[in-house]
Amino acid sequence: MIEILVVIGIIAVLAAIVIIAINPARQFAQARNTQRTSNVESILNAIGQRMADNKGLFVSTGCTVDIPTATGTISSSGINIASCLVPTYMPSMVIDPTGTTTAPTCTPIYTDSSNYNTCYQVVKDASTGRVTVIAPDAELGATISLIR
Q1: Structural domain count of the chain
Q2: End-to-end alpha carbon distance in the chain
Q3: How many angstroms separate the CA atoms of 52 and 44, rounded?
Q4: pLDDT of 36-68, one tens digit each?
């Protein structure tokens, strides 16, 4: 009888470990954060390519919007840089993957370059000119921001 109880206890402990290790909510949150990192890299690479093509300047022919020195959201009503990047540097603007964040800062949408909200933020350092793209709705306490 004691041997059966010991076996049942061991099985219960192993089952608990497996359930914790394969936590689906955590796995989905990690997958969304990976998508956010990829999206931030895509935006930053497109900005970098545009600046490289224009001798270090973001603003040039066909693009009158510059990246501000104060953090702002990349959207058609905020920092509207889609017309500067799409379709030459990226096929379409990427948007934040919707998830179960407890307090999302915005609702992502992309219809076209004149109606979109990426939910990503961008800022340019006034002294160095380095550009930072941020994903403010990262989950699991992650901080996703890349600098070029």
Answers
A1: 1
A2: 66
A3: 12
A4: 999 999 999 999 999 999 998 999 888 889 999
- CA gap 44, 10 in Å, rounded: 50
User: Residue 100 is part of which domain span?
Assistant: 2-147
Alpha-carbon torsion (40, 42, 45, 46), positive or negative: negative
Please state, in angstroms and rounded to a whole number, the distance separating the CA atoms of residues 114 and 105.
21
- 97-109: per-residue pLDDT in tens? 986 555 566 889 9
From CA 135, how far away is CA 83, in angstroms rounded? 21
Output the pTM of the full model: 0.82
Using CA atoms, how far apart are residues 21 and 110, in angstroms rounded to an integer?
Answer: 35
